[in-house]
């Protein structure tokens, strides 16, 4: 038995007929000849409202205008007024070095700061969460804290506990960080990590573009004293340096070797870095590890005095120099 074939479909179907405006589920006009289905109308309205609110927020908050003294709003584009011109930052550890030596450090920084209208900042070891990293990392977060605490300072100078400021005749803002002074002293096209790093300091860097000033000794980069310009780049630099991934590495010299890694592998950091002769801000009490202190140098460091964890010798080594800087500051 043969069944009949189904009826053949018409090869010329009827033209598409859009829904009438009176039919159920009709859409909201979206453009000529196109409608928006009813189920999408609320989503579209919410999206439009969100875009309008976002535009209003950007226009009123996105310009970086904030309070003069910084804070969460406006710090990204805040331009320091230069009041104070600089802040001296030293991380203290009275439990380890004793009250007498700690008081001597504070006196030294304050006498120098008063000479030039600078401010001082003395956080303590243990003030910040380091996630089990060595306490020497405190200097990095302390500098970031200082930038927040003194948003109008132009420069921040970190000076470690094993260093004394010796000369009242040299200022950070005019004798170290001024454009002409930097261009006169910068060590260009030089291995960042001596003696044979293939990464060199930029040869075309201008003084006005420098945001970080470092020195080297016979062992490499030195982080016991360095100068930062208060800038958005410097905030980025400190946050990069303090990244948990670097703190978790078992670097032999903790933050110092982390910095050596960063400046060699991140051109954005290297592009703002200037090396200056060691005695500019970091003379040593002995020539065994670097350039030895000479009368008139800005600062002297005792690099071996902190090595003993039980009985640091900084106070004994510093005593002869304390007499010199006290006399110099009193007679200024």
TrEMBL record:
Which GO cellular component terms, listed alphabetically, does the Swiss-Prot or TrEMBL entry include? Answer: mannan polymerase complex
Renumbered to this chain, region (Disordered) spans 1-28
* Matches recorded under Pfam families: Glyco_transf_34
Keyword line: Glycosyltransferase, Membrane, Transferase, Transmembrane, Transmembrane helix
Q: Where are the transmembrane segments?
A: 40-59
Top-level taxon of the source organism: Eukaryota
- Which GO terms fall under molecular function for this chain's record? alpha-1,6-mannosyltransferase activity
Could you provide one GO biological process annotation from this protein's UniProt record?
protein N-linked glycosylation
According to its UniProt record, which protein family does this protein belong to?
Belongs to the glycosyltransferase 34 family.
**Which protein are we looking at?**
Galactosyl transferase GMA12/MNN10 family-domain-containing protein
